[in-house]
Design goal:
With about 170 residues, the chain is α+β, with helices and mostly antiparallel strands. It has a seven-stranded antiparallel sheet with strand order 2-1-5-8-9-4-3. The chain has a two-stranded antiparallel ribbon with strand order 6-7. It is about 25% helix and about 35% strand. It has a single domain (about 1-110, about 150-165), classed as Roll (Pnp Oxidase, Chain A). The chain is built from six helices and nine strands. The longest helix is centred in the N-terminal third of the chain and has 9 residues, at about 10-20.
C-alpha cells in the first residue's frame, strides 16, 4: 500500500463523514459482522503509519466487538446507498442482523476479519494500535452539554490502516 493512495480521496471521505456518515465494520469472535454509522473520525498519520481514528461509545455493540477483536473497517458508501447509513445508525446489532436485513453483501477483509462492504468505492482495513477513553474533566463544558448528556464518553480507537480497497471506477459516485 502506497501512503499517497491512503490520502488521495481524503476530501471525499471527510465529506461523507460530515454528511451521511461512514460505515464502521466490526466482527464478533464468532465471525458475525456488524455495521455502525459514524460521523466522527480522523484520517491521518501517527508513528509514521497511516491511521483512521474512530469514536465509539461504550454503550454501542460495536464497542464490545472492537474490544474483543481489535480490528475494524471503515467503508465509504457511494451515492444511492444513504439508506444503509441511516438504518445502521438507528438500530443495534445486538438485536438486528443489519447485513441480512438490508441484503448487504460483504466479505472478510484481506488483512483483517472485519467486513468489507461490496459496492463501496473505498474501504480501509484497520488494526487497533491504541485506544483511549475521553476524560470528562478535559471536555469543554459546551461540548459536554451537546454531546454527553448521559456521560457515555467515546472511546477513540487508533486503527493502523493495513490495507485499502479502492474501486476507481466508482470514485465518481462519492
Amino acid at each position: 500500500m502506497i501512503l499517497e493512495d491512503v490520502f488521495r480521496y481524503t476530501d471525499k471521505v471527510y465529506n461523507h463523514l460530515y454528511g451521511e456518515g461512514l460505515l464502521l465494520g466490526s466482527v464478533s469472535k464468532g465471525g458475525a459482522y456488524n455495521l455502525m454509522t459514524i460521523g466522527w473520525g480522523f484520517l491521518g498519520i501517527i508513528w509514521r503509519k497511516p491511521c483512521f481514528i474512530v469514536a465509539v461509545r461504550p454503550s454501542r455493540y460495536t464497542h464490545r466487538l472492537i474490544e474483543e477483536t481489535n480490528v475494524f473497517t471503515v467503508n465509504v458508501l457511494p451515492k444511492g446507498m444513504e439508506h444503509i447509513a441511516s438504518y445502521c445508525g438507528s438500530v443495534s446489532g445486538r438485536e438486528h442482523d443489519k447485513l441480512s436485513e438490508l441484503k448487504i453483501k460483504a466479505s472478510r477483509g484481506v488483512k483483517v476479519d472485519a467486513p468489507v462492504i461490496h459496492g463501496c468505492p473505498i474501504v480501509y482495513e484497520c488494526i487497533v494500535r491504541y485506544r483511549f477513553k475521553l476524560d470528562r474533566d478535559k471536555i469543554p463544558r459546551d461540548v459536554m452539554v451537546i454531546a454527553y448528556p448521559s456521560d457515555d464518553f467515546h472511546t477513540l480507537y487508533l486503527g493502523e490502516i493495513v490495507y485499502m480497497h479502492v474501486d476507481n471506477s466508482m470514485i465518481n459516485l462519492l
